[in-house]
Amino acid sequence: MEMVPGMVADRPVVIFSRSTCCMSHTIKTLIGGFGANLTVYELDEIQNGQQVERELQKIGCKPSVPVVFIGQQLVGGPKQVMTLQVKNQLAPLLIRAGAIWI
Predict the structure, then answer these.
(1) What sign has the CA pseudo-torsion 50, 52, 56, 57?
(2) How far apart are the first and last CA of the chain?
(3) Which of 6, 8, 50, 93 could be 69's S-S partner, Cβ–Cβ 3.0 to 4.6 Å?
(4) Considering the chain, what is the average pLDDT of its residues?
(5) In this structure, what are the phi and psi dihedrals at residue 5, rounded to the nearest 5 degrees?
(6) Residue 1: pLDDT band by 50, 70, 90 thresholds?
């Protein structure tokens, strides 16, 4: 598990995604809708995508995409992100991470 920490370091929001995944698209659209400064890694398009996906699975991400890190902390998948949104906790988390300014 050496790649993922380096990929999320010093980035306010990181989303591990697949370009063909509709839930990945939904989460990217939701977080991007806040105007968030986000980094997206499309695992089906990057050279070491399969290795990254295995690392995500080892840390408990099932399914392995989409996976969201905010402020270098694992938030989880779509269920966790949508729960934060419904509870009005997503925007404050993005603000604390420096991903958005209001």
Answers:
(1) positive
(2) 35
(3) 8
(4) 94
(5) -55, -40
(6) low
- Residue 61 in contact with residue 79, Cβ under 8 Å? no
Q: How many CB atoms lie within 10 A of CB 95?
A: 15
Cα three-residue angle 77-13-99, rounded to 5 degrees = 130
Under 8 Å between Cβ of 93 and 71: yes
Residue type, 94: L
Residue 64 has pLDDT above 90, yes or no: no
pLDDT tens string 3-24: 999 999 999 999 999 999 999 9
The three-state DSSP-derived secondary structure of 23-68 is HHHHHHHHHHCCCCCEEEEECCCCCCHHHHHHHHHHCCCCCCCCEE
